[in-house]
Design a protein that fits this description.
Length: 472
């Protein structure tokens, strides 16, 4: 047999099958890094428990940040790649065990994020009217799991709100609560969210930080944006800011923040306008109320040279009808996957999952569940590339390799009664949301109900069946 004949009769090696668990930015960036390289032929199944992709870009970025939410258009290009398959509405641990998934693929990259809030662990935290920012954000972004009844009950009649935390999410919450209906109308918020926010007579939002402005973690862009609100004024106590004679913080971001805060310091409350008060050196000691939140007891703090806050014993009680805690996200364990409970991340080394301190062949991690809830959306791109580089190095070293025959994950899921949502189904949801938005003059309105999402997803299959019937 000639070399040409032998080459022609030898089948091409099977592509490395990689499952990416989590179709948020980290997962999509991991799929992009895997398919853009040419050294190892790869096929990616991008799995998510929701019927929709994009994770926190869809359900975490505030809907009034229209430009940031447009990042979905960029991420969508990865979903259209011929060797990437979106498999939504599939929950690992319920529809398919982790062990079963690993039998279907050659490697798994876990990118399912950190979706739960951190508790304050103070008295009164569980009172009605005390909610987590993660829950409020999920509700106003149209997350299918949002507890609509509880959130909307908490918002009824709210005039004074307190947001605990000084990160970007805290500022998002404060901003959304005081936006005018006219400002929110162009967003893709579900209509029931717009109606509930319009009905909430919020007059003041106080954002509490237990340390000083130099330790706050919000970005200058988010902070500066507060000054552009149509119906609210930002208030800052100048006594909480470093004096003009003091040298600016070495960190340029912190220095820019101080500059913006100084610009707010001369502001005063104005009749007919809501207020957002940024209050520093304020540690929430307990949430006050009996049947519902009525206030927050706050202790004045002092910050030492190492940036640690200590209580001064000086207490005040601030009135509040609503308390939103925004002190961080935490990751949850995936059944069958180790989790470091001190950091709420999966133990790893450069993205390799560690089991009992040793690398687990074929298992990797990226995104918040790898490093914790830090950075901005773009941080996940570098993070995913590091993990993919580790995975590819393991392929080169022979640690992982294609094994077994072709085995279709979607066919297996359907055979056991699961209802996976694929890319055409997602595009049908996308079209339905665009059409729904057009009925009110918007670019899009988010569909929040899971059953409605799945009904929209099936429109693609119904259309395909109708076309097939017409052709037969």
């Amino acid at each position: 047999m000639s070399d040409a004949e032998e080459t022609a009769s030898t089948p091409a090696p099977r592509r490395l099958r990689v499952a990416v668990v989590g179709a948020g930015p980290a997962g999509i960036y991991a799929a992009e890094a895997l398919t853009r390289q040419d050294d190892v032929p790869v096929a990616v199944d991008l799995i998510d428990r929701l019927p929709t992709p994009f994770g926190l870009v869809r359900h975490g970025i505030a809907p009034d940040h229209l430009r940031m939410r447009a990042l979905r258009d960029t991420l969508h290009g990865v979903l259209d790649h011929e060797h990437v398959r979106f498999v939504g509405n599939v929950e690992i641990g319920t529809d398919l065990s982790l062990e079963e998934l690993r039998r279907h693929v050659d490697a798994v990259v876990y990118t399912y994020g950190a979706s739960r809030d951190r508790a304050l662990s103070i008295e009164g935290e569980d009172l009605p009217g005390s909610i987590a920012a993660t829950d409020l954000v999920g509700w106003y972004c149209g997350h299918p799991d949002a507890d609509r009844e509880r959130i909307e009950a908490a918002l009824q009649g709210v005039r004074n709100a307190i947001v605990i935390g000084v990160g970007n999410v805290a500022l998002d919450v404060a901003r959304v609560l005081v936006r005018t209906p006219e400002e929110l109308d162009p967003t893709d918020m579900p209509q029931h969210v717009l109606d509930a926010l319009a009905a909430a007579p919020v007059e003041s939002v106080t954002v509490l930080g237990r340390r000083g402005p130099a330790q706050a973690s919000f970005t200058t862009k988010e902070l500066d944006e507060l000054g552009e609100l149509a119906g609210a004024t930002v208030l800052v106590d100048g006594a909480d800011l470093p004096g003009e004679e003091e040298p600016p913080p070495a960190d340029r971001l912190k220095a820019r923040n101080i500059k913006v805060l100084r610009g707010y310091a001369p502001n005063t409350a104005e009749p007919g306008r809501a207020t957002i008060t940024l209050r520093f050196f304020a540690r929430p000691a307990r949430i006050v109320g009996e049947d519902r939140v009525t206030g927050v007891e706050v202790e004045r703090t002092a910050v030492d040279a190492d940036g640690r806050a200590t209580g001064t014993g000086e207490y005040t009680t601030l009135p509040a009808d609503l308390v939103v805690r925004s002190v961080g996200y935490r990751g949850l364990p995936l059944p069958g996957l180790p989790l470091d409970t001190s950091s709420n991340t999966v133990p790893n080394e450069a993205g390799r999952v560690l089991r009992d301190g040793a690398p687990s062949a074929g298992e990797y991690v990226a995104g918040w569940i790898k490093r914790g809830p830090t950075g901005v959306v773009g941080t996940n791109k570098h993070d995913a590339r590091e993990t993919v580089a580790t995975l590819l190095a393991d392929v080169q070293e022979g640690t992982i390799a294609p094994h077994g025959d072709e085995d279709d994950l979607v066919r297996t899921l359907r055979a056991r009664g699961a209802d996976p949502v694929l890319l055409p189904n997602w595009k049908a949801i996308d079209a339905a949301e665009t059409a729904l938005g057009a009925t009110r003059g918007r670019q899009r309105t988010t569909i929040h109900d899971r059953d409605d999402l799945l009904a929209a997803a099936r429109a693609a299959e119904i259309e395909a069946e109708a076309e097939a019937a017409a052709d037969s």
